[in-house]
Structure formats: structure tokens, C-alpha cells
Amino acid sequence: MSDGAKTDLRKPHPLDPLSAEEVVATANIVRSAKPEMDIIFNTITLKEPPKKLMLKYLGYDHLEEGTSKSNVTVPREAFVVIIEKEVGMVYEAIVSLDDNSLASWIHIPGVQPIITAEEVLTVEALILQDEAVQAECRELGIDMNNVYADPWAIGHIEKYKGADRRLLTALMYYRNFEDDNQYAHPLDFVPVVGTYAQLTYAHDLDVTLMKVIEVERIPPKSSKFTRPVIPMENHNFLPEFLDPKTMRTDIKPIQVLQPEGVSFTVDGNQIAWQKYKFQISFNYREGLVIHNVTYQDGDKLRPLFFRMSMSEMVVPYADPESPHYRKHAFDVGEYGLGLCTNSLALGCDCLGTIHYFDAVMNDHEGRPFIVPQAICLHEEDRGLLFKHTDYRSGRAHVVRGRRLVVSQIVTVANYDYALYWYFNQDGTIEYEVKATGELNTTVLAEDEDPGDFGTIVAPQINAPHHQHFFVMRLDPMIDGVNNSVLQVDTMPVEAPVGSPENRWGNGFVAKQKLLEDTDAAQADANTATSRFWKIINPSSINPYTRKPVGYKISCMHTPPLFAKPGSIVERRAGFARKNLWVTQYDDEQMFAAGFYCNQNEGGDGLPEWTKTKKNVNNEDIVIWLTFGVTHLPRVEDFPVMPVETCGFSLKPCNFFNANPGLDVPSQSKHTNGSMLAFDPAVKYGKKGGLNPVDPLKMHHPSNEQGGSCCGSNPAPVASQASA
């Protein structure tokens, strides 16, 4: 990972992403080893070292006698996925960057790698030049020069069963002018494109490389029309297309200032803030990855998580008709969060005093390209960390919290996802997804209704119902490598009212169930019992509870997958069957829907890995947490969608011996810059509103510099003491 235009001359950390120079070196080594091949470099990325070796390097594992952390050798390797031009065969290569050699080369039959941005642009150009596509547009009476294609992964179609041939489809739109919102003008047909063929097709005369092989019409439902007239009314959100008279004029600036600088430090890709230390990395598929999270608890550095990332996501749509049934985008496995990441704008995407990290990836020729400012690091106010007011004395003690934010934003066609890791001063780690961007839309005939499967968000524009599922791969290391998971359910005491055990009927208890194996550890959320899961270390005991220390997984966004068992979506996104899975650690098990997700028929990933029951009690485990939202679009989501949020938290649960935020100092008005908005001496202005005044000229006891947020307030007059 690069930072700005600086050249980092230090020896890379074993988890640092490949530099631009290493990407070039990797491509050159592969070409030199395979000079006879015409190669497409699908992806070039760091091959992460095995976990056991990294534990030794980081000092967690017992080092072999006579060794030390300083002489643990970690190989520097690149992992390369390659497509051979013309024949489309797929290969995996491992390149040793220590000795500049090709360490391995394997042909992987019957798979299709991730779709790249270059491929998307090539396919769009191919579609727009196709005669069948142009004929469709002529019949619709629209200008081909204003037609656009959003290439999508094909998903799975029975008549094109298997992954021997690389296929893409496309959703078609129109624009009235440059930068017009194309999703206000959806078209009624879908092309299917064949790109590279496998050798099994070499003598098939019906197969031509890089060709539109089908154009599918989407007929209106319950309509007198055979084709809709494409809606041409504009629905734009960019400011230059909005009426200036409609824009709000009563918004005053908010500035986030840190006059003494930030409270975090950065060394390469290692970040230290408050009592946390962790490493970040970035790759084409997961995007941002968090490594080796530790917390300084007094004189003890306590490990929390070895690795955390978004492993996969899927967006299944509800309409069972063709082509909508195959719209279930895997934005990690088919497109790559890293490849889709935004370059973030200072003061817009992130606010305050910011540190950025660049990201390095590769094009089809093996050349590096850099996404500047791909990762944002900043602090923000978190509101109250804790507070108590003594109702007798009126003494209020207030401690405001802050959090460290590490974030990226990705755009996958119409949708944008802002992805945030939050590190809090009480030991809590949170993850949040903010989904925004534009709805996927379809066109309706003038008399057509979407029925049960969508919402009309503007005349003739349907926004289909869909879901968003995200699965996180959490590799815990709670006070050590071997961990277990408890399922905790709160429920009423079973004994009836009036019984000796529950005389007044108010009793309820929390029941814990140890998830001992991979069968038991396939679990769903249960709001009726306020269910949560707790990661524990059976070998680390809290001195007060005399029970294992732990971290609690809380998630309020756990919709079920509504696609039925046996459906294409359910087979391909098997991870969404359950909210929680726990597996034994395996270096090769990284992606919940399988490594080659594109065009696969399903069954790979978590369903395959858990076919054989394995122990996950007091083991090196991985937790897979699935969460998300069910999106029934609203008119208010168009033409651009306000953020829809979901996420989860990892909260210490009997991990510490007291509130770990007790040592966070109170703030004062001098440090936080708070002041009264209006002069209390002048209540109302001529127009009946409060008069704003110059804050520097205001004189009020609560605004004096150095005044504490936690001083003694006048004791309240209370008729009774109540909680």
C-alpha cells in the first residue's frame, strides 16, 4: 500500500500489499517463464504468509528452541491469476519475490476469475457496436449514441451451464445528455456476451470469441403493449441539473478541527491509537483488511483479532421472471471491493484531520495502477462515553468518547457502499455498511404495474425488491489463538407464576450453549431471546466472574434469505442460509462462496467446508457472520438513495476488570470549543427568530475558557428521589 507520492524504501512488513515495483517484477517473472503464452493478468496480489508462520513472526507462538522473532524468515510471494488469450484457460501462479522466480504454475479447469474494470469497458463497447443491439434501439426509437450498458456477471443460466465459457450480461440504459441519470431511462432488453472460450470449445463452429450471443427482451406484464415507450423525463441529483431556487440556503458550515493534531500514529501500514495497535492491508478482492488487533491493558498487551475482512456479499433480487432471477451480484467474488474502490475526496468522504493510504493493483498487461486516497483514517466524536449525575448534589460527571475510523468506499455499477471500521475507547470494535448510490431500475409499459416485486419510484420506472447480505470473516485471537463460541439466549424462567422458583413471575435468565462443532455452529439470530454470540478463551479466566474472558458479537441486522432452498441464489450464496458459522482455521478458506465465485453453480465455500463435522471448541477458529438488509425501495430512494445502514459490534464481555474507558479524561469547553449559539440576553429578533451573535463576544459563565463539562451544577429541586 502506497501513501501519497512518497517512496517507501523500508523493508516491507510481511503483510504489506505489493508495491508498484513488485507488481511489475511479478509480471516480468511470469512472462519470462512463459514466453510462448499471450497472457492476461487478471489479478496480482500478495500471497499472505501462512498463519502459523505469522504467529511466530509476531511473537504469539512458542518459538522453536534457539530462534527469536528477529530471525523468523517470512517469504515474500505474489499470487497471480492468469487468463490465456484466445483460448481462455485459467492458471494460478505463485512468484517468489525473494529469488525472482516462478515458484508454481497450475492450470485450473472449469472456472472463471473475477471481472475487471478493463473487461467491463471492453464488453460495453462490444455491446454498443453489435447489430442486434442497434436493431433493438432503432425499434425503440432511441439514438444509439446515448445508449449505455452496465455489464454484470451472468450469474447462472441453465442453457449456458458451467463455467467453460466466460460470459457476461448487461443491463441497458439511455441518457439524454452527458452526466444524465441513466437509471431514469432503463431499456427493455438484456444482451449476453461471450468473451474467451476454453479449449473444449476450440472446434465449435457456433462459438465466436468476443461476441453478443443473445439479446433477451423483457416483455411487459399484464399490459396491452408489446414494448414500452422508454421514459424520457429526467430525474437528476447532480447540483448543476437542479433548480438553484430549490436549494437550501439555511445551512451553516460545520468544521471538525484538531488544532493540536491527531491522536494516532502511523508507521508504514501499522496504526497505533489510544490502546489499540493493528496493521492494515488492501487487496483487489476484499479491499481493506485489518490484521493483528491488540489492546494495551495496563502492562499487558492483549491480542484480540488476527484478521478481519468482508469475505463476500450478495444482492439477490425478488422477481422470479427472466432475466431478473439471475440478478444476484457477488460484489466481492465477481467484481472485487478493491477493484471497485473510490479515490476519496478530502473533506467530503471523510471529515476532519485525515491520513490517507493509496492502493496498488494491476491492469491486464501486468502494469500497476494506483488508487490514490483509497483508505481514510481519522478520528471523530462518538458522543457520550459515559455520564452520571448525582441527583442530590447536582454533580454531573461527563466523559465524551471518540473513535478511530478506518474506511473505504466502493462503487459497483449503480450501488455505492461506504465501509467503516470503528475502534472505540471502551474496547468495542464496530463495523458499519452505508449503502447508497442509485437503485437498479427496470422500465414499465405505460399501463404496467410491477406487482409484488417492486415499487414505482417515478412514472414507468420500477425499482425491484432485493436484499443485501454481507458475510464477515473474523479470525479471533481473544487472549490467545485457541477460542470457543457461546450462544447466549435470554428467556423467562420456566417455573410458573406463584411457584417457589418464580413467585412473582418476573424471573428471566441468560442461557449459554457452547457451539462445540461445525454442525452446532451453524446458527441463526433470534430476536425473541435477544440472542448474541460470545467468543471466549477457555484458558483465560476473569478474576471476578471466574469464567472465561470474551468478546460479544451483537448484530441487529439479520434478515433471512427469502430465496427458497434449492434456488440458484441459495445454492450459490450458501453462506446466507445462516447468520453464524464457525470453522476450524484453514489458510485456504478465505471466501465464503468459494474462490472462483464467478459463474459457479454453487455448493462451494462454507457449505462445502462444513460437510464434515469438526471440533471448534478451544481451537484456532474462524467466525463467519452474515448480516444485511431487505430493501423494499421507496420513492424517497430515487433518484439517489439516502444511506441505508447495517453492521455489527464486537464488545468486550468480562474481558476487562472494569470499564476500560475510566482513564479517558473529561473534556472542557476550552478543548472542545463548544459555545452558545445565541446571546441569552436577546431572545428574539425582529422576525421572531433567535438572533445569532459573534461567539467571541459572548460572555456567559458556561462559555468561559477552561470551564469544565463536569463541574457542579445547581442542585435540582426534587419532590422525591427517583431513578
TrEMBL record:
Annotated keywords: Copper, Disulfide bond, Manganese, Metal-binding, Oxidoreductase, TPQ
EC number per UniProt: 1.4.3.-
Domain Copper amine oxidase N3-terminal: 113-193
GO BP of this protein: amine metabolic process
Superkingdom of the source species: Eukaryota
InterPro entries: Cu_Am_Ox_Cu-bd, Cu_Am_ox_TPQ-bd, Cu_amine_oxidase, Cu_amine_oxidase_C, Cu_amine_oxidase_C_sf, Cu_amine_oxidase_N-reg, Cu_amine_oxidase_N2, Cu_amine_oxidase_N3
Pfam families, A to Z: Cu_amine_oxid, Cu_amine_oxidN2, Cu_amine_oxidN3
Entries under PROSITE patterns matching the protein: COPPER_AMINE_OXID_1 (PS01164), COPPER_AMINE_OXID_2 (PS01165)
Note on cofactor: Contains 1 topaquinone per subunit.
Official protein name in the record: Amine oxidase
Native source species: Jimgerdemannia flammicorona
